[in-house]
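User: Let's play a game. I give you a shape written as tokens, and you guess the letters that built it. Ready? Here's round one.
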């Protein structure tokens, strides 16, 4: 029941942020399941990635496709033109942003142009999959989608409190950074 209490806290916080967004245009997000450089696979409708995007106030750019791990082309991504991209597995977000993925030019995508391509955090495990840290994933997504309404500093406090309550771990700055930036230095 303690995990349920964490979910209740998370949903309450997220609802407070999203309640103020009802009259604003909905941003489009894309959840990259994996990108090897040769193949880009996304999470379509009816998947965990889709659920994360919708619950965090976004429209799934790949929502017209049904299922998990769907191979797509850069041309499809250009057409969708997502505002935000989340990378679950494969090449790190830094390679999208520095243009070093051979054969993929992300510079034509809104998410690239605004610097909003992110690696999914990894704590106990990757937060993009159902895990003990899932209540944090939802709040982290909202903090990335609406940084003026749930700031990085506020989320950092939420994460530290969560790890203290759930695991008895007092996160150091280095530990917190390694969770939120799992591919730093790659």
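Assistant: Ready! My guess for every position:
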């Amino acid at each position: 029941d303690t995990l349920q209490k964490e979910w209740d806290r998370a949903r309450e916080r997220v609802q407070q942020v999203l309640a103020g967004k009802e009259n604003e245009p909905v941003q489009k997000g894309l959840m990259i399941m994996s990108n090897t450089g040769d193949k880009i696979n996304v999470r379509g409708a009816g998947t965990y990635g889709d659920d994360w995007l919708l619950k965090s106030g976004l429209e799934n750019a790949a929502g017209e496709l049904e299922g998990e791990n769907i191979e797509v082309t850069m041309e499809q991504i250009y057409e969708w033109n997502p505002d935000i991209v989340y990378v679950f597995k494969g090449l790190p977000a830094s390679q999208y942003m520095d243009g070093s993925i051979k054969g993929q030019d992300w510079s034509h995508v809104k998410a690239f142009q605004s610097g909003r391509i992110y690696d999914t955090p990894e704590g106990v495990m990757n937060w993009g999959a159902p895990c003990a840290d899932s209540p944090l994933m939802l709040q982290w997504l909202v903090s990335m989608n609406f940084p003026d309404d749930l700031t990085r500093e506020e989320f950092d406090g939420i994460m530290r409190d969560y790890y203290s309550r759930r695991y008895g771990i007092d996160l150091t700055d280095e530990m917190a950074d390694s969770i939120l930036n799992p591919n730093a230095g790659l």
